[in-house]
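Comment thread on ticket #2218

A.B. wrote:
> Attaching the input chain for the structure job we discussed in standup.
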Amino acid sequence: MLGLSQQQMAELIGVTYQQAHKYERGINRISAGRLFEIAQVLGVPVDYFFDGLGGAGRENELHERQRMCLEVARNFSQIDNKRHQEALSQLARALAVK
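C.D. wrote:
> Ran it. Output below, let me know if you need it in another format.
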């Protein structure tokens, strides 16, 4: 959500790119100490990573939707062509009409 690459995140928490990739994919578990480090680097409380656990499925849907919205915004901002941006904006408007 912050737009960091795996390489940038790895550098910030002091691990290799490969290790960060394994953390992200769930191949390796993250220790409590490392989770605390990650939270500090990202500027969030540790419980941020547990938000929604044990909650209703609706919360998970909201988090997924928020993630997608941020991803769309990040990708949209990387489009240099103004005509393409406008076309994508019009497409979103057209799809949103019920």
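A.B. wrote:
> Thanks. Noting for the ticket: Residues 57-77 form the longest helix (21 residues).
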